[in-house]
């Protein structure tokens, strides 16, 4: 956990930051795949 997302997630919910990072990672993969195709 790092940055604003990690600090906000740890302050509110320990799993919130992990979920946010996971969602951002999935979105990044989808965007890169769409560009490659």
TrEMBL record:
Which keywords label this protein?
Membrane, Transmembrane, Transmembrane helix
What domain of life?
Bacteria
Q: Where are the transmembrane segments?
A: 15-36
This chain belongs to which protein, by name? Sporulation protein YjcZ
